[in-house]
Every structure is written in C-alpha cells, then in structure tokens.
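Supplementary Methods S3. Complex input for the 6-O-phosphono-beta-D-fructofuranose-bound model.
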Amino acid sequence: MKKIGVLTSGGDAPGMNAAIRAVTRTAIKKGMTVMGIYRGYNGLIHGEVKELHVRSVSDIIQRGGTILYTARCDEFRHKEGILKGVETCNKHGIEGVVVIGGDGSFRGAADLSAYGIPCIGIPGTIDNDINSTGYTIGYDTAMNTAMELIDKLRDTAQSHDRCSVVEVMGHNAGYIALNTGIACGATFIITKEMPYSVEEITDKIKSTQTNQKHHFIIVVSEGIGGSEELAKQIERETGVESRATILGHVQRGGSPTLRDRVVASQLGYKAVELLSEGKGNRVVGIQRNKIVDFDIKESLTMKKEFDRELYDIASTISF
Ligand code: F6P
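Predicted complex, serialized as structure tokens:
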C-alpha cells in the first residue's frame, strides 16, 4: 500500500491527536503517503483531503480535540454516501483508511471495506463502550477530568452539609461513573448495568447520617439521567439540601493523560502495520495489556463485562 488516509469520527476524545501522529509517522517511515481526511466521513464524502507530512503532526501529542476535526455523518449510513467516499479515495489514490472513533464509526469502516477500501478502526471515545477492547483512547483523561471536578464539588457539598448529585458522561455505559464514583468516595453510584432504587439511595443517606456523615456525593451515569429530579427527591426524602450538576462536554476536553498518549501511539502504529500487510476490515484494541485486532463485524457482536466486583467494593467502603 502506497497511500493511506486517516480520519477522526464521532465525539472527539483526548488522545486522538496522538493517534493521528502515530498513524502519520508510522506510515511515512514505511514509505507511504498519508492523507488527512477532515471532518470525519463528511470530509470523505465531500473530498476534504490534504496530505499530512512529518511536521504536520508536530506539537499535537499533548493537545486535546482533533486536528482533523470530527463529525457524526448520517449520509455515510447509506449506499450513496459510501460510494461518494469510495470515489474520493479513488480520486486521491487512497488505498486504505484508518478510522479513529467509536463503534458507530466502525460500522462505516466495515462498509467502506466491503466496497473495496480496506479500513482499520482505532477505538477513540471517552466512554470506553467498545466491547472488543478493554480500553478506548480518551477514557483515562475524561475520568481524571471528572474526578477533579467532583473533588471540587465535594468541597462545597462538605461546607454546606449538602448532597451533590453529579452526572458524568458515558453514553449508555457506566464505566466512567463507576470509576469516578469509587475514586471520589461516592455514597452511591448509579449506572444502567446495576439495579438500584431511589429508596435504596435515600436509605443509605439516612443510615450514614446517623453515623455523623453530613455531606454526600451521588454519581449518576448519563444513560440514567434525571439528576435534577433525583436531587429534588433526595432532598424531599432525607431533608438534606441537594444540588445537581451535569458535568457535560468539559469531560471531552483537555490534554491527554500519559495512558491515553501511550495507547494512542501503540494503536496508531498497529493500525498502519495491518494496512501495510494488506489487511483491512479490522479493529485494533487492548486486552490484558496486549494489542489485539479483530474483524470489524465480529468486534461489533462482542460483549464486555461490567466490573461488578469494583461496584461492590465501592458500595462496601462508602458509608
Ligand atoms: O461518545 C462520547 C460522548 O461524549 C458521550 O459520552 C455522549 O453521550 C455523547 O458523546 C454526546 O454527544 P454530542 O457531543 O454529540 O452531544
């Protein structure tokens, strides 16, 4: 393969730039030309393509966001959109594409592969909700950001003897909620993966109140939502003044942590290796500290276990 493209798609995630850098530098080392495709599959459809040189990716390893911009693209769900993407590849001589994004983006990569342009998917999303990998680029940074913000909320909750209900991102997955919840000493962590009732939460608050606990952190995952209403219910049932905070998109920004930069570099390198071996229609990932790769369609059918043990530990030690 002599020329490849790279794009970022879906929600941005810290570490995507480190992955773009790794893809670009690995490919150039292998004698390939690298084309940056801008604004995800939209850029592929509309021919927003520009060559990336060694220095095009200098000074980006520490930057959040994505220098290639990103988008969610409905047009690429249809055959016409995919065919326009193939046309752009053919016009620019792009023989393979590295797609950095979530599993919605991998579906596009599978479709493009089926139409003759081999693609490799790199998991990039703060949610860690891709089942074929234990880790997605951006997850660690987002969790650390959420942890720092929840620590700040704890200061004010403690000063006012309040309950702080904090909603963290994660789409339908509770991984960010679980980990930030345990790291911030949350009284209760609410995720879709584990059953709960409001009564259970208010009972726990009441029982810990009798044990001299006066402020509370409840972490709610985005997939559950309803934080404002929950805060009102808690205040009504327990008499503890409560406030809701939705952390929102601030969790997607910022300089990537060491872990995100390292994993992004490893996966970017591996993706280009696969393309250079003539392989396509695959996703790369990390399982038990090893780099792995799977057929895209197969990866989309995989299941990932929620860490119930960690959830139980968090529940046991917060009272
Ligand atoms: O997938 C990353 C993510 O931030 C999710 O946690 C969230 O559900 C979604 O993207 C928000 O999407 P948007 O930026 O389009 O509002």
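The chain is about 45% helix and 20% strand. The pocket of 6-O-phosphono-beta-D-fructofuranose is lined by residues 11, 102, 125-127, 169-171, 222, 252 (CB under 6 Å).
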